[in-house]
Amino acid sequence: MLDDNWLAICQIDDIPVLGARLLRRANHSDIAIFRNAEDRVFAVLDRCPHKGGPLSQGIVHGERVSCPLHGWQIGLDDGCALDPDVGCAQTFAVQCDERTVYMLRSELSQPEAAENTQALAASGA
Predict the structure, then answer these.
(1) Looking at residue 82, which CATH number applies to its domain?
(2) Domain count, the chain
(3) In the 3-class helix/strand/coil scheme, how is the chain assigned residue by residue?
(4) Which structural domain, as residue segments, surrounds residue 53?
(5) Where would I find the Rieske domain in this sequence (predicted)?
(6) What is the pLDDT of residues 85-108, one digit of tens each?
(7) How does residue 113 score in pLDDT terms, banded at 50, 70 and 90?
(8) What share of the chain is helix, strand, coil (3-state, %, to 5)?
């Protein structure tokens, strides 16, 4: 059992295999919660670092998602674009207990880490 810092978001079966479920946040950008073929769950800000495309509408393959706008491949574990592209989307901590998906309460209430994640990735930060 997880402590009170974790909030139950959904059941893993609520997320389509090789797809995403959108978590809407008041006054903040949405979070895409992804599930891959191995039932691993990831949470990424629903905005591609390239042109802001909705990652939740992308195609999941392995531990990556392809942005539906321009095909950038974004790592689901770290939010970073694969070479030769540069940029990162914010990721969020996720835990699964049995079939329930949890996220950290403190992360859900925080605004996006940075508007220009491309600059952060390029600088090595």
Answers:
(1) 2.102.10.10
(2) 1
(3) CCCCCEEEEEEHHHCCCCEEEEEEECCEEEEEEEECCCCCEEEEECCCCCCCCCHHHCEEECCEEECCCCCCEEECCCCEECCCCCCECCEECEEEECCEEEEEHHHHCCCCCCCCHHHHHHHCC
(4) 6-111
(5) 6-103
(6) 999 999 999 999 989 999 999 999
(7) low
(8) 15, 40, 45
